[in-house]
Structure of Peptidase M20 dimerisation domain-containing protein:
Amino acid sequence: MPRTALFSSLVASSRTFRHLLHSNPYVSNDEAWTAKKIVDFLAGGAGIPGVRGIQPLRTGCGGHGLVYELRGSLCKASEEYPPTVLLRSDIDALPLTERPSSSSDAKSKRAPVSSRPGAHHACGHDGHTAMLSAALLWLSEHPEILGGGRVIAVFQPAEETGDGAKAMIEAERAIAGSPDASLFGIRSISRGAFAFHNIPGRPFGEVLFVRQGVAARASTGLEVRVVGAASHASEPHLGRSPMPVLAALAQRASTIPQEVQRTSGQSLAGPGGAALVTPVHMHVGNAGDFGVLPASGKLCLTLRADNTHAVEALVEAVRDAAEEEATLAGGGYEIAMERIEPFPAVVNSRGTTDILTRAVTAVGSSSSSWKSVGDFVERCGATEMEKPFPWSEDFAHFTSECGSGALVGLGAGEQWSALHAEDYDFNDELLPLGAVLWVEIAREALKPTPQ
Ligand SMILES: [Zn+2]
């Protein structure tokens, strides 16, 4: 099949595939159906006549994770560690109910709405999956692009809960027997790890990245549980309600980073901005129990900063503040804290972002060989960010395991609905752009290095 026709067929198939995933979303750690559909799509060559399809190297990796391996046409079978680049897509949806915008313009541009209430691909991981799938099938048809190198492609579950990347790495270590021999280890992935995330609100085609340093912030959820003593509501002096402790802590939360700075003299602010302690949920007693002074309650907080060390300083400061408020409320409380969904910071490395900028140039330059496949390539350009993305990403586990990496944003359009919004849908126009960018990243990463 001619190059342009094959590419158009791949984009059309991956769009249909993306819509299938979008209308059947499965949340973190429940992606068995999603993983099976990815395997089917890739094994069947996207349903395109003449495309051979590819089989996974691993299934069920760290839950419902998949790993694919592609070898270049010059890659020696005997070589244990050929030059290798890791390409990663996340595959999970969010526990939200989709409510699409009612405007007909928006309707015509979107995938069919989720058929599973309470689950919504509201972060575009359906689109990330389709982009990487299209790129892998293109590369398997053109192994000369990879030369003497190899691609390890990862479809990662449970990104939203922050445990999928870690689980995949641990599962691989268990198979390999030692961290050094792991498929994701530094010796195996010698040319860096890459991940894309679509970024609504930024111009379409903008490729956003931090050249070197923190690219997405560290964070953790923190549940603060306070236990006092129950009593009849008519005799509150005989009990100890956790209410005043939790209310005071919730009010004080946002000023805790400044408190740390005042007491330690050390600022927790980094390039990403100020450190944050944000109350997100509070629960005390039971609604309807008007006769009971409650004994226990909890406050949930999200802590965010540029690195794990600063997040740990915030955790300790929250503990101190909770104990102080408990004493002020009369004492006699038990306080327990639990970290939930901790994310380390993603750190981009210079060598990897240099590969990225060369790939962006190859796609978007006036002499781009991709011009014939669509005018979307003309809108592709690199934008270096001064600040990291404000959110967190568990891709951090791959960058630290592989020794180098880059988290890359793809501008989805200025008018596009925000990530995690009820009416969010992935912008299908990004599919061909993301696919060619993946192909060029693989080509640039695996070029022989000068001796
Ligand atoms: Zn996401």
Remarks:
- The chain is about 35% helix and 20% strand.
- The mean pLDDT is 94.
- Residues 90, 123, 125, 197 surround zinc ion (CB under 6 Å).
